[in-house]
Specification:
With about 200 residues, the protein is an alpha/beta fold. The protein is about 40% helix and about 20% strand. It has seven helices and eight strands, in the order βββαβαβαββαααβα. The strands form two sheets. Strands 1, 4, 5, 6, 7 and 8 form a six-stranded mixed β-sheet that branches. A two-stranded parallel sheet has the order 2-3. The longest helix has 26 residues. The protein starts with a strand and ends with a helix.
Length: about 200
């Protein structure tokens, strides 16, 4: 029955499902944020972020829910810990204000998709993988064969589009010129003091 400030920790690698490698679930976070948006006693929310980022879809779900939290009239503050980079920074951008320590690692505005290739290893082991598929690209990014140029272009187009979504989120939420964001959005990390400058 009294005005309250809620603290929501966002730690570790973020994905839609919780498991041993990715303890932070966007499903549980979005439920928590939605609940806080409906709680009339909660006047403000502190997002305590200590995360290097995570999967694009999971990060965007949380980002959207932070925007909904603000629309419900709550003040939202992002408090960065040791690291709030990539998706961690993406989420922070949705807040009204961002706080960081001088030594906080942040930034890393970019998107990456890594595809391993074990073809040569399997060849040495005498293992051969055969694929039966319904269409040409069903096994795109298969680790059992080289990637074709056509497949590389498809994946690059997805990475480029997702990167643009990230950049636009920063432009809109931080009220920065796109030219300035693009100059900083080279996927490098910054310290908290560098980011402020």
């Amino acid at each position: 029955g009294k005005p309250a400030v809620a603290v929501v920790p966002i730690t570790g690698v973020i994905s839609t499902a919780r498991d041993g490698f990715r303890p932070m679930s966007s499903d549980s976070l979005t439920r928590r944020l939605k609940s806080l948006s409906e709680d009339e006693d909660v006047k403000a929310v502190v997002l305590r972020i200590n995360s290097p980022g995570g999967t694009v879809g999971a990060v965007q779900e949380i980002y959207d829910q932070v925007l909904n939290l603000r629309k419900s009239g709550k003040k939202v503050v992002a408090s960065m810990g040791d690291v709030a980079a990539s998706g961690g920074y993406y989420i922070a951008a949705a807040a009204d204000q961002i706080f960081a320590q001088p030594g906080t690692l942040t930034g890393s505005i970019g998107v990456i998709l890594q595809v391993g290739n074990v073809q040569e290893l399997f060849k040495k082991l005498g293992v051969k993988i055969e694929s039966v598929k319904s269409s040409e690209h069903k096994d795109i990014a298969s680790p059992f064969r080289p990637m074709t140029e056509k497949e590389r272009k498809i994946l690059q187009s997805i990475i480029d589009e997702t990167y643009q979504q990230f950049v636009e989120a920063i432009v809109q939420r931080r009220k920065m010129e796109k030219k300035k964001v693009l100059a900083l959005a080279e996927a490098r990390i910054f310290s908290g003091s560098q980011e402020k400058a």
